[in-house]
Write a structure and sequence with these properties.
The chain is mostly helical. 78% of the residues lie in helices and 0% in strands. It is flat.
Length: 329
Amino acid sequence: MAGDAGPDDAREEALRGLVEQGVLSGAQAAAVREALDAAEPERSGVRWIEVVGYLGGGLVLAGAVVLVGASWDELTRTLKVVLLAAVTAAAIAAGVLTAGGVRDVAGSRRHRVPAVRRRIAGALFALAAATAAFAVGVALDDHTVLASAATGLLVAALGYAALPTVLGLLTCAVLSVIAVLAAVEKIPDEPEPAWALALIALGLVWGALAVAGLLAPRALGLGAGATIALLGAQQPFYGGGVDVAWGYTLTLAVAVGCLVLYQRERAWVLLVAGVAGVTLAVPEAVWDWTDGAIGGAAALLLAGAILILASGIGVRAHRRRSPEAPRRS
């Protein structure tokens, strides 16, 4: 184990020294860590160990589901909750042990945990969030979805805070959407665009956390925020009961916000979200303004033309934001 930790510790000391000398900022050092982790080739033996670990965990989980499912209806509610709580605790403990112990998990933001162990532990923490949500759903009769999603989100957020992983971040994003939608549903006489505005607000929160450097990978956090906001803006088109003008107006506003933020953050996900938002909003607006007079083929042509135009503008914006490539003599 010591041999594996040596290079990581030496790299971290070098990066910390560059930050202290003012050569790199904290955000730049984090970006360098991510790039080095992505570029570092993994040994085939380590890769197979990871695959075996996933397969073993999947088989254990499947076996437990089959075993419990055979007698699930015969169990009392208390016993069901106890079993699910035990699985949650076991998954958390296994995740901590996989990461190398509490001390390594506590220092995970300094990349003390190797990448393979980090991914396996992240999967275990995500499993713990799911079983915790299920346990609360079984225990409660009322407010089941809201309480379940909030509990799962709390467990997932704690796991992500202890050990940031891609799967952990995605788990938090999904559970946060479920929790917000369930909370809005509990509002008596909710205004028609409440669901859309709630999801857009949630997307803004995710974007703010990513910009503040609290989410890693940073680009994934920005992408999650943009995706959630766009889903909220499009809600009037599939939620019903809301004027569709809300839909394309909010979608265009979110798209413009992503493009403006892209001028500050060099994250391609913001550019993609902005282009996608414009491509959705303009044909929807034209369709609404003409009362559907344009046919399906015309709508597709219009959407395609807008996509090409928006993509061209996006590429030009990306080139302006990117450093010029050195010219060959």
